[in-house]
């Protein structure tokens, strides 16, 4: 699964962000390979090949670390390689949820409250999740936000911009992010928006030579969705699905 070169880059990052228990993880590399195999192939945990170790060890490690925010910290650590903020890109995608994804605990609330908490909902595309990303100028994911499938992308835009360590030169997004107040927020930060107006809005300045680069973030989603557990959501909880997005993005950073 992981070459020696890939593991040499990944191991110190995992060691830096993983929880420190009384005993170190048993065969950490094999456990990480099992986690990657499962999510790249979209298989059941019990379908893990025997050579990757006990399935329950990989499952417990991934789920526990997802709850503790380890995968988000791993993505933050890999970004120390250098984020390019000449242009940043915002984009959202709909992820269809597998029927097995609708089984998280209600925790005292209604089914609708549970689905909202776990970022699951019904839209015209079916039952699923809306995943939004902010990417740097090289098309590498910086941060994610997830919401129920029927949610609009715009409410997640400002929190994603706030996750940046510095002010970008340009913020590039499609018409789904067209909003006078959002453009005003971008200007107030000291950045410039490249967001085309909707057909029912007055024209706004959107330089084509900037906006034409938006395919960078579309290619990012294409790479991430090569992971079957990203293309289809199998996870019951929002924390686990966010963990998969961050883990897939981390491996994408290490390849570039």
From TrEMBL:
It holds the Pfam family DUF4096. Residues 100-123 are annotated as: Disordered. Residues 171-255 form the Transposase DDE domain. Residues 2-74 form the Insertion element IS402-like domain. This is IS5 family transposase. It comes from Microvirga arsenatis.
């Amino acid at each position: 699964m992981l070459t020696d070169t890939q593991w040499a880059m990944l191991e110190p990052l995992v060691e830096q962000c993983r929880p420190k228990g009384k005993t170190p993880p048993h065969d950490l590399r094999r456990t990480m390979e099992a986690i990657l195999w499962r999510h790249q192939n979209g298989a059941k945990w019990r379908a893990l090949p025997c050579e990757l170790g006990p399935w329950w060890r990989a499952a417990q490690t991934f789920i526990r670390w997802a709850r503790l925010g380890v995968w988000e910290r791993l993505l933050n650590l890999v970004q120390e390689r250098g984020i390019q903020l000449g242009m940043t890109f915002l984009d959202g995608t709909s992820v269809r949820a597998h029927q097995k994804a609708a089984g998280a605990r209600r925790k005292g609330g209604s089914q609708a409250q549970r689905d909202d908490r776990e970022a699951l909902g019904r839209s015209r595309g079916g039952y699923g999740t809306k995943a939004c990303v902010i990417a740097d100028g090289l098309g590498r994911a910086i941060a994610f936000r997830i919401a129920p499938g029927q949610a609009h992308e715009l409410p997640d835009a400002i929190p994603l911009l706030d996750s940046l360590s510095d002010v970008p030169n340009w913020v590039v997004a499609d018409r789904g992010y067209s909003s006078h107040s959002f453009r005003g927020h971008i200007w107030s930060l000291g950045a410039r928006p490249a967001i085309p107006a909707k057909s029912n809005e007055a024209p706004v300045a959107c330089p084509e030579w900037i906006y034409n680069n938006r395919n960078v973030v579309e290619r990012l989603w294409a790479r991430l969705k090569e992971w079957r557990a990203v293309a289809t959501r199998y996870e019951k909880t929002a924390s686990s699905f966010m963990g998969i997005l961050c883990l897939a993005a981390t491996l994408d950073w290490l390849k570039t």
